[in-house]
Queue: 4 jobs
Job 1
Amino acid sequence: MEARLRLLKVRGQAMEQNWSAARCHYVVYFTAMYCDEDVAPQEQAAFEALVRRVPCIRELSDETIENFKKRTQWACDAGLLDEELERALSGLNADTVTGLSIYANCADIIRADRKIRSSEVRFMDKVSKALGIPEMQRALIEKVMDAKNRH
Amino acid sequence: MLKWFGAFSRERAARTPGEAIRNPDYPVDWCVAALLYCSVYADNAAAYEEELEFDALLTRARSFESIHPDFVSRYIANFTDILKDHDTVLPLADIALQNMPADPEISAAVFAQCADVMFADSKLVENELAFLDHLAAGLNLPEDTKEEILQVIKWKHAYGC
């Protein structure tokens, strides 16, 4: 009961603040890596290289990025990753360029271990819908990311 | 550096990777690593983001799954040695392209990985564009496949934040 109350309190506090674009990007990419609940080393390598390259994340201090990591991992351990993802996607305010970029990077991460599970397909559907990715661009991104990760 | 491209492309146009005689000293993983390395240095300057992508691909790409990490270090020493008297990456790319298998799936994968490295710093300079054309020709990549890959890799590195 106490743990549940603590959880609700932390969630309530988190909901009060708007997330930065950097945190939204971080949570979406983290979820791409984690959504099959089996983080392959290849997916982790892809995720870690990506978050060190994304301009709005790269400009943050190591401490802030470590804080993102701890909070997202905590949400993940508490079974709240879906809610974190929804919040991140709704906070992105994504234009077409941002949406296509996020979708392509997620498609790359989930294919890094050359296995696509049903949970990853559901994740990609959710991201595509939230970011308004047109079907034609979605199909092209998946085709190219399949090709890239095949060898 | 660009004057190299004309002469080299004419020479390459006469044969396909499948027709080239493959040298057993240059296995496929060596060739893929060499082309990725060339992609980092195609503009004669390694950006931090390009090195990150290069390192990540060496960790995760299927070409390197079966080799010991020490081999990668040896390969890189080998690449540095091959390029030590050159101001262009083309001599190394030439060896790698001659020894790549004529497999359209591998060609598309390697081209996409190289493009991913070159776009990693969200900038593409003239030498990198020329190297991408050279790479596509050397890998016998169909024009529409090349265009599709480049379009998606451009989207991927636009970030928007």
Job 2
Amino acid sequence: MLEPLVQNLAFGLLVGALYGLAAVGLSLVFGVTKFLNVAHGELLMFGGYASFWIFTLLGIDPFLTLASTIVFLLVIGLVLYKLLFARMVKLTESVKIQNTLLVGFGLSLILQNLALRLWTADTRSITTFYSGSVFTLLGVRFPIVRVASLVIALVTLLALDMFLRRTYTGKALRATVENWEAATLMGIDIQRVYLLSFVLGAALAGVAGCLVSVGYSIDPVMGMNWTLKGLIVMVLGGLGSITGTFVGGLVLGVTESATGFFLSLTYREVVGLVLFVLILVFRPQGLFGTKEG
Amino acid sequence: MTRKQVTFSALLILIAILAFLPVVVKKDSTINLALLVLLYVSLASSWNILGGYSGQINLGHAAFFGAGTLVTRSLWLAGWNLFPSLLAGGLVAVALALLIGIPAFRLRGIYFAIGTLALAQILYITVGNTLPMISSLPAQSLATYELVPRYYLFLGLTILTTGTAYFLVNSRLGLGIMAIREEEDAAESLGVSALQHKLLALSVSAFFAGLTGGAFAYYHVGYYPQLPFAPEWTFDSMMMAYIGGAGTIIGPIIGAVFFVIVREFLVLKLAELHLIVFGVLFILVVLFLPGGLVGVWGTLQKALARRSRPKEIKLTPTRES
């Protein structure tokens, strides 16, 4: 009884790291710009396909494709921002949330159907020669690729954290989260900060997508599911903190796998949503957030 | 005739045409298409009551539509009369709406949109898991199945939905609902309770979505119980409302007609491409034409009127932001 349970929780932790990564991108963009980009899951899906095709066509190791996938997503993010989201920068906060939500929704519909047409509805995943390798620790099996994904997710988040804390630009981003008006008065170029955080969010989606395509599988309609998970985790972790969001991702992953273990696999996908509704009712500031307006 | 009378007469003529349609047209496929348009008008209008007039984006309308189908179908097949079953479906939808609305509306921002989406997905997955079998009408009802009464049910429902929406938004409560959309703090400071008005709009919206779902359950011969909970129902009605013109009575009607016609046309030619077309159109409307097709028409009318009339000096109040 105990060993399968621990095994299950370990798997939950591994997938939870990816939920966290997806949510951090969403949360970064939302925190800085107040854009609720519900096409985040579709960006993630595009990241997954980018890695998949580079691996399949050129035979490059999936973890090395990360670099090109990030560049690809940076470009997509830049184009989407210039084309669509830049037009909504000046709206008041509630209208901005609403309109970006609507535009993001339209975008997700377009990207999803584009992917369906381009790459068919087949489920795909990257299979390398080491995909099946596992190592055993205290009787628990760890697939190498998923552990590597966890490490990459952690490194990415650490790098992001360093960037936000240590660099001038990162501080400008955080200042904008705190109070954009004061930030403007201090000479921070809001337009650039917005653009930067948006493309950074897209790049984070790309990293997550690549890791999903290696450790799990991708298909054109996965986007909404990942957006939902990202949103749940974002609220779970309390808006605004990277660590909180990442831990929120782990919590969701473990909760899901525990549900799959104790109840039934079919309710795995529901539990996160129920968790969200409970958070909404009892602790809207999130598990780790502090009360504020 | 005044403008109001013209609109009213046009409306009566339209209803008369729709009422006589089954008498004139005997082809089932045509009646079916008209029925589908009515279904979408009703669903989009019900979404619009909350989304268009109070500005709260409901991403889980399918939950209310689906709840209506599930309750009405079960009760009706269990031997209840149709109308009590429909009513029960609508009421269950309202109960669900309050369940998510009461906690979500206490907070601002993203919580209502995500909360409704979560609710719809919970039901979509759970219904798929617990009721995996197709729900077909029993052989006895199939033998006596007739399309025309279903068509009239949808016609009546559509008139009821749009009529209620019309009277609601032209009432004092409707003004309160719109005031909240425009400026929540200002409305609250004038004694309009944002929470109460949002909950009212949500309840009316969910009620009619539930009724539409019930009518769907009465109409459809065989479907998976999960189907009406699918996110497409939400997204389609949202797009119809926006493309037609959110926050107007006629917008969702035009949007639904446009949506169904374009879809029928594109599906024959280009498979899934219609969703890309609607996605692009939807984004364009949100970014550049917040009034939708109705707004475009209004702008054209104004432009024409300006050309034909001599220039007049108009004083418009400016609003400081």
Job 3
Amino acid sequence: MIRYIIRRLLWGVLLLIVVAALMFLFFRILPTGNPALLRAGRDPQPKLVKEIEVVLGLNKSLPVQFWDYMKEVFLHFKFGYSYYSQEEVRSLIAERLPATLSLTLGAAVLWIVGGLGVGVISALRRHTLADRFAMGGALLAISAPEFWLGLVLLFLFASDIGKLKILPGAGSYVGLTSDPWKWFTSLIMPWIVLASGAAAVFARLMRSSLSEAMKEDHIRTARAKGLPERSVVRQGVRSAINPIVTLFGLEAGALLGGAILVEYVFDIPGIGELNYKAIQQSDFPVTQGTVLLASMFIILANILVDVAYAYLDPRVRYS
Amino acid sequence: MSAGGEPPLLRVEDLRVEFPTEDGVVHAVDGITYQVLPGRTLGIVGESGSGKTVSSLTTLGLTRRQGARVWGRILFEGQDLVTLPEDRLRAIRGNDIAMIFQDPLSSLHPLYRVGAQLIEAVRAHRDVSKSRARERAIELLGLVGIPDPARRVDEYPHEFSGGMRQRAMIAMALANEPKLLIADEPTTALDVTVQAQILALMERLQRELGMAIVIITHDLGVVAEMADDIAVMYAGRIVETAPAARLFAAPEHPYTWGLLKSIPRLDGERAEDLVPIPGTPPSLIARPPGCHFHPRCPYAQPDHARIDPALEPVPDEPSQHVACLLQADVRRRLWRQLQAGDTPEQALSAAGLPGAPV
């Protein structure tokens, strides 16, 4: 098992190198404008542009630039400096990481607990009013894009523009350490928006997975043993959870993608927003840094899923 | 079904079970009556879809969740299990009445250790500590002949062989020393050599623990081995019931004949041809009128499609009951001809009945 994890981690590093290389290529091939020109101000002297190109290393040949870049990223964990603000990308990311972690981890909790909870209840009360209501709501949540759902919630509940002014609106985010209560209330709507799609997928999946699991022969055995219904359901959930765990890795990626939109709509100063602005400004080092960070999270989530799978299903053993 | 003075452990009276479905009402069990005496074995024989499994699941109330409509009485030690509230029935399940199923792999939870599944069976009805229940689990695995039980108790079902899994299922069923064990096709999913081992194990445990057994099977060989009494089911009804020896020596129902003629025998004087029962079991939604077996019966007469036969005692043999519209003497002549190696057609003409089946 340890060997398996190490091998997967090494593959993960290789994958990150490939992602970094692709990013580098895209930004050199796509017409993004000369970063040196962008930084030189209005009507710059060609001499100044040349000097800036030297500072940014743009005068070197592409392979050399690539080598320098990869060396910095993978040996020193440095992503370079923003073309715009000259700030170090690493510190830009570090500054904004808490907000994104608050948003995504909170949403993940809501997603898993809410999705699985609704799915279990729906599966056990199939074809009742509660089930139909939950599944109808899930369909709506799957169909609604984050930016639309976010705006609708702001329109309904935000304290500034909402019809019912009950929750802090866009731009109200504060750090957890400065004001925990405000941190919590300002994140309620973003959490809901970010979690709703994945939670709905999980709820529908859990419903069908558990309905199937409850028809298994071993559930009949559990009842024939005289186990209380709670224990019987627990055994059903235990088998129903396995196929869903696989999906966790995929949905984790979707969650990070959604975070970009949600941070933008709710004006949360996080990685997603940083990335969004960097893309608009062709700020290559920042984009590269944020994308690599996101890739790393997705790769780690998938390794975690595979390891969890071996733990959850004794019939699966990696070698 | 001897009429001894001992009160029966389980008495099923006129049990009917129906399932409403979109296609119509499934008449899974249609008025069956049988009883099991303490320490004795009843074999229920029939093809798949004859209602034998549904009747035993209903005994434990396990068809309630499937929306079954149940009539009649299932008396176990004086309590009617049909009307018993769920929580009191749960106290009987796995405790006084235990059940084992056809496919031991799918009947065990694949994600829990065998020991854990035994422990929860013990602790469902006994207020004992986990470690005490674990000792009991190891003891039970030893009892059913699993070697090195202290180690195997921590293994998962997929690490057991098919026979071992069924032994583990039996161990689980015995956890609380039930008075009645219902075994639903316990050997069907197993290799032939393993089948014999499992049957021998059940017989040994029955002797040691003194429990009654209801064994449900499509395999007459299995009931020949195990059962004291046999009930033959067809399309939700019992069509013949008799002590085992009597049923094999002098079966009365054409369906029973068909079952007997469709199993290979090694002790026959010559290579007898196997005679399959023609046709397929009827749909339990739209059953044939009259005798439900008449479309497949080589000896059916025109009025058999109209008249519904009742389960009645055979003349001179009160322990044997049969639901057949043929005259008793005609039936006996037919069976003699069949035993002599006649085909059903030859037997028909020898018995002097009109040839063409209905």
Job 4
Amino acid sequence: MKKQLYILVALLVTASMVLAACGATPTAAPATAAPVTAAPATAVPTVPAEPITLSIICRCVMGGNGESTAKWMLQYVIPKFQEEMTAQGKDVTVELVQFGGSDEELKARYALDLAAGSGNDVMAFDGFWTPEFASGGLIKPLEAIVGPTYLDWEGWAHIPTAVQQLLTYQGKVYGIPVGTDARVIWYRKDVFKQAGLPDNWQPKSWEELLAAARTIKKALPNVVPLQLNAGTAMGEATTLQGWYMAFLGTGNNVYDFQTNKYPVTGQGFLDTLNLYKTIYVDEKLGDARMQLLPDGRLLSFQGFRDGTVAMLVEGDYFWRSVLAKGGDAELTNRDALVGWAKMPAMSPGKGVNNQDFVTASGGTGFILNPNTKYTAEAWALTSFIFSKDSLNFFSTLQAGIRSRDDVPVPNDPVLTTIAKEMLPLTVTRPPDPAYSLDVSPEIQLMTERVVSGEMTPQQAMEAFAKTITTDVGADKVEATK
Amino acid sequence: MEQRRPILSLKTGLVFLLPAFVFVLLFLIVPFVWIIIISFTNQSLTGVTALHPQFVGLGNYLDLFNFSTWMTRGNFGSSLFITMEFVIGSALIGQVLLGLALAVAFYRRKGTLREFVNTLVILAWIIPDVVVAFSWGAFLNRDYGTLNAILNAIGLGRPDWQLQYSLFAIIIFNTWRGTAFSMLLFSSALATIPPSYMETAEVLGATFWQKLRDILLPLLRGNIITDMILITLWTFNTFSPFLLTGGGPSYKTEVISIFTYRVAFKFFQFGEGGAIAVVTMAINFVLVMVYLFILRRQAVYS
């Protein structure tokens, strides 16, 4: 008898030790999320009547990343919306949750919050997450949350359908986009001058791009000539700013919109991976370190600010948010020092749709949390963010291409020109959950394997093809053209 | 031999056990079973399989043990191997050996140096993880770090700890972090050794090594084994290297806990993450069994 009891206790102790040991892993999630959260999550009021508290979450921190968005919320949206609600006889308080972590960390927080049936009422949302979250039932169409009256909002008439697509999945609208963007090569005019390169520079092929990088390397050995994003640490920035920008130049797209398949093998892959190899491994025209370290993206931003990185392929976000006043890498005389050039195809006419130059676009916006307790007020807040006056106020804080056609493109010649020249050439990411779930992370891994020297382009491509074929199914993959 | 009567009857005993058992059932057994169940599905947090998970049988396990990709960085086998290197390096060689060395070095000594070293070692143990990781990040930084400033000053250049020697860096980090436990355990064990043993040996003219080999180590044997197993268990499951390297670069420091985290909470693949957790649990189970077995044998000895 005593022995049996002993065994029972021993088993329980063992099980609890094992579980306590394994428990270390799941608990790590909040532990990593906690330090980056600037403000505690909103306490949901227990009494649904009278005072209402709503919360907005975005990757926006006063004195840090996305400060202009934080200012927009704190100086305009929140006070004005509260006034408007008071005028309607409602007692609404809005809190801003300033999230200081990375996009990937925010996405993880959203997924966990939403799956647990909680989260903030209004959430800043990257458009390309929509298919993955919507197909998983974590977010709901506005129609399902608000009801058909969501269409009554005056703003829809001013947001072009193509822009609405950014937060649409299978014909259903999930939120309202703030605007769209485009990607180009940013370069330091002062470094170019020192290296004897023209002030008004525009490469017409990869070879011309590499030639400029070689010239810089020779003239200024301490300057990293060119960063083309690669590696898993940078997350989606690698796929959109790095892989897309190069791969589109081979005449292919990451997703074939005609056949609804993903190319996974072929010459386009080898050409793109060889470009990475030339830059990071063979000729060291770029610094692979910045692509591999956890804080590599910031290092490349700071390098560009300090003039130790000459060219960086990035979105207009880099211009309007990173290099701008208050950005992560504020550059005081940005307008004089920074130039931009269109990303060339491998050779003229060889780009996607036979283009000479290529670019890719994404966009962010705000969605309504399906778990919100105050649907009407939360929708009122979301649409208020996108009122004409509100977006105009945001434009005074940060120039950008806005979603509403009655909000003028701000007085920023660089952004105006990018909008005019690049948006007609642009491509967007596929409206398919497998893109963000499987394909994009594997693209990041494929580039990392090449730039770290772990695999040859051929091996990396084969590993990629194998994984994607398993993940999305053999009937959804094809070879490049 | 007279049978000793238990204080409580079995029935009363079970009643007393009940609250604890309910607690264990609810928070340990149920999640445990749940993890095993989802490890046979392709359940995820986002995407189609979040709403419509399918039974995939042993699929997740076969993926983990797919030997054609098993040792490629970022896969299960590679992660297990890294964990093994990490455990041997930082737990067995690092913490246990260094802890033993410190305890023996200050055995039967008093004074400021001992207090000073003890305080430093214990401080390294009790400072919160995030603070430690942040300062180590600053310490190891290639361009601005304290370590490289020192190395550079004495002409050793600026090694890239974060990129080139990342596994070595987390091994050193974890050794520094956890040595206190072993040191304290061995110190208190040494304190129980009757001073007469050492005094007699000294009278007989034994050297330091002879005393260590013939007196201290045999008497510490049980403590050393206990310490090794506990440290191995903890190190096997520790997550703090994540704060320093994030598992990178290129998964070079992705120990098993970080691997599980990445699959389950970065890619949201709960089914696959569950399978990893089950295998990890099995490994832990073996370690705990060895530990319990040795504890029991020691109890029999004494």
